[in-house]
Specification:
- It is a single chain.
- By secondary structure, the protein is α+β, with helices and mostly antiparallel strands.
- The protein has helices at 6-22, 29-34, 37-40, 61-67, 85-94, 109-119, 128-143, 151-156, 168-179, 200-215, 218-241, 248-263, 268-280, 297-319, 336-344, 366-376, 379-386, 388-396, 401-415, and strands spanning 44-49, 58-60, 71-73, 79-83, 101-107, 146-149, 326-332, 347-353, 358-363.
- A five-stranded antiparallel β-sheet has the order 2-4-1-8-9, sandwiched between helices. Strands 3-7-5-6 form a four-stranded mixed β-sheet, with helices on both faces.
- The protein is globular.
Length: 419
């Protein structure tokens, strides 16, 4: 048996991605797999569709979303189909199998902070019923194995939580920790009811322990660095957008070059978000706050980078499982602009390589994105992207947190010239 090299495996992963991109959404998932068995061998695939195949284990996104409209699915379709080499072989023998799935619900800051407001007796105004529906869904979902994950809120607010004068992150985490043990009856929905209250000191202590664990975690540091990388690409794209004499192709080429130089990698998903801004930015309210740059633009851009990273974080959840298992992420947000953005970046599929720890995210409009990418890549840039020695050098030049901060300072200084 010939052992596959890492470079060959990377190329096969790319070919598998191309197979999904070129697969007609109306065609069957079975045909996609059977026509490309050698490409998908050893990978896991989560495939979103509006046409569920009876022969493959699947999950209905529509049913979950209808049960709690505040939930926003990570994948675009009404249902999901799943593939792994092991499950595929079992399916061929038995006809159909059920694959155990893990479901997760993450909260953005917008949703998480409503728990703090609610606990303090504050008014949620028109969102009271939506929030109550979310709470009931979480409690019912936890009883059925649906994971309630507010780690993204902690990551987003980790730096602010270190500021002695800022009590908001801690109080929100404490309210969420208190909610962990909340139970309710259909005729009594009040976290302040003594029957459902938890000792504040206990929940506060657990909030402190959670913050300490996050502050000392190397994995969380990695998340913060990844978010900084996304922030750099977004900032660079905004600066390129202001250069009116440049074509879309030229802007994309310069953005790719910047990604290689600053991040030591071709940051495909981050560049996809930037492409949305450069080509379709006027079509989405999410980008309205930076349609014209001003003194408050930098603050808004930082917030937008966190919103975009929320989508990237769900990718991590969807791919972070034991080999052969699958994780289905959802997100809860009351931010209509963010929800519109998520719908504008619909995820069609994930291909997961558990051996090399790589994930390929495939959007519904991936083909349009790939066409624009290919047209923007000059022969010189293509040589940089394909040269194996260059790739090895880039992998060894992974920027440190300090490097990323320095690069951010440089871009922020350039942004100031437009404000």
């Amino acid at each position: 048996m010939v052992t596959e090299t890492q470079q060959e495996r990377i190329m096969r992963l790319q070919h598998a991605t191309n197979a999904v991109v070129m697969h007609d959404p109306s065609d069957s998932f079975k045909n996609l797999i059977e026509n490309n068995e050698n490409l998908f061998r050893g990978f896991r695939l989560v495939y979103s569709t509006n046409n569920l195949d009876a022969d493959f284990s699947h999950s209905s996104l529509r049913e979950i979303e209808q049960h709690c409209p505040t939930l926003k699915k990570y994948f675009y379709g009404t249902g999901l189909l799943f593939y792994s080499e092991h499950h595929y072989e079992v399916t061929k023998r038995k006809g159909r199998i059920e694959i155990p799935l893990d479901y997760s619900l993450s909260l953005d800051s917008n949703a998480a902070e409503r728990f703090r407001v609610w606990e303090n007796g504050g008014s949620l105004d028109k969102e009271e019923s939506r929030f109550e529906g979310l709470v009931r869904f979480i409690k019912e979902g936890k009883e059925q194995g649906f994971n309630f994950d507010y780690s993204f809120f902690i990551i987003e607010n980790l730096i602010d939580s270190m500021k002695p004068e800022n009590h908001r992150p801690f109080n929100t985490i404490r309210a969420l920790k208190r909610f962990d043990h909340l139970e309710y009856e259909k005729d009594s929905f009040d976290i302040r009811n003594p029957k459902f209250s938890e000792n504040l000191e206990s929940s506060g202590q657990r909030a402190i322990e959670a913050l300490h664990a996050f502050h000392s975690s190397s994995e969380i540091k990695g998340f913060l660095d990844r978010r900084m990388g996304l922030y750099l690409i977004l900032l660079k794209a905004i600066l390129l957008r202001e250069q009116k004499d440049l074509s879309l192709n030229k802007k994309m080429e310069l953005l790719i070059e910047y990604s290689l130089d600053a991040l030591g990698a071709f940051a495909k998903t981050e560049i996809y978000f930037a492409w949305k801004l450069l080509k379709h930015g006027k079509d989405f309210r999410f980008f309205d706050p930076i349609s014209q740059l001003g003194k408050k633009s930098l603050h808004k851009i930082k917030g937008m980078a966190w919103d975009l990273f929320a989508i990237r974080y769900q990718e991590t959840l969807a791919s972070k499982s034991n080999i052969g298992d699958f994780y289905v992420p959802f997100f809860a947000s009351f931010d209509n602009r963010f929800v519109e953005l998520a719908k504008a970046c619909p995820i069609r599929a994930l291909i997961i390589d558990d051996i090399d720890k790589r994930v390929m995210t495939i959007h519904l409009d991936e083909y349009e994105f790939m066409v624009d990418l290919n047209e923007s890549i000059s022969p010189e840039l293509n040589h940089r992207l394909q040269d194996p020695d260059e790739k090895i050098k880039r992998m060894s030049r992974k920027p440190s947190t300090a490097d990323l901060k320095l690069k951010a300072d440089e871009l922020e200084l350039s942004l100031g010239e437009y404000c």
